[in-house]
Amino acid sequence: QVDVAAMVQLFGYVDVTDSGFIVAVLSIIFNPLFWNVVARWEHKTRALSQVFGSPHAACYCLGTAILALNFVRSHCFTEAMKSQPKLEGWDSHWTYYSGLAILAVGTLFVISSFLALGFTGTFLGDYFGILMEEKVTSFPFSVLDNPMYWGSTAIYLGWSLMHASPAGLLLTAVVAISYTIAVLYEG
């Protein structure tokens, strides 16, 4: 039997009906859905490559759109956290620095993934017919499958801990679930 007392207490701090929280959830869910649908559509039709005149231009355009959507998602996430109460017991130096360390590790995974894959490797170039010469197996891929997704999740977890935010923790769970579904869909 699972003890759900901690979860019930955590949910007591989160207003899931708050409009900012709902917008954050929707932006978290929308992002991987958007890029997977658009990339698969491009792979089937080559429509974006035709509109932009080349697969590279189309991939860079999609990558730019994904980056913009990620900034919007992060803004919505932060605003949702700020509009909800903090967990006072976690509003301490220990929690703040633990969150900072988790955020730093997540950032390391995201940046090193980007450096290993490059722009087109990161932003779905394979769907545009832009293939890498060989599979990337160096760090961080040697340590973790899908390091970009889990690094991003770690960034949100660290950010939530730094702000002692139960709403942030719940939103981080939504990020993790969204990425888990994206990995299944992409695989």
From TrEMBL:
A Pfam match: PEMT
Alphabetical UniProt keywords: Endoplasmic reticulum, Lipid biosynthesis, Lipid metabolism, Membrane, Methyltransferase, Mitochondrion, Phospholipid biosynthesis, Phospholipid metabolism, S-adenosyl-L-methionine, Transferase, Transmembrane, Transmembrane helix
Top EC class, one word: transferase
A single GO molecular function term of this UniProt record: phosphatidyl-N-methylethanolamine N-methyltransferase activity
GO cellular component, one term: endoplasmic reticulum membrane
Protein topology in the membrane: Multi-pass membrane protein
Domain of life where this protein originates: Eukaryota
Any single biological process term in GO: phosphatidylcholine biosynthetic process
Spans traversing the lipid bilayer: 20-39, 96-124, 165-185
Swiss-Prot/TrEMBL catalytic activity: 1,2-di-(9Z,12Z,15Z-octadecatrienoyl)-sn-glycero-3-phospho-N-methylethanolamine + S-adenosyl-L-methionine = 1,2-di-(9Z,12Z,15Z-octadecatrienoyl)-sn-glycero-3-phospho-N,N-dimethylethanolamine + S-adenosyl-L-homocysteine + H(+); 1-hexadecanoyl-2-(4Z,7Z,10Z,13Z,16Z,19Z-docosahexaenoyl)-sn-glycero-3-phosphoethanolamine + S-adenosyl-L-methionine = 1-hexadecanoyl-2-(4Z,7Z,10Z,13Z,16Z,19Z-docosahexaenoyl)-sn-glycero-3-phospho-N-methylethanolamine + S-adenosyl-L-homocysteine + H(+); 1,2-di-(9Z-octadecenoyl)-sn-glycero-3-phospho-N-methylethanolamine + S-adenosyl-L-methionine = 1,2-di-(9Z-octadecenoyl)-sn-glycero-3-phospho-N,N-dimethylethanolamine + S-adenosyl-L-homocysteine + H(+); 1,2-di-(9Z-octadecenoyl)-sn-glycero-3-phospho-N,N-dimethylethanolamine + S-adenosyl-L-methionine = 1,2-di-(9Z-octadecenoyl)-sn-glycero-3-phosphocholine + S-adenosyl-L-homocysteine + H(+)
PANTHER family: PHOSPHATIDYLETHANOLAMINE N-METHYLTRANSFERASE (PTHR15458:SF5)
Protein name as it appears in the record: Phosphatidylethanolamine N-methyltransferase
Organism: Alaudala cheleensis (Asian short-toed lark)
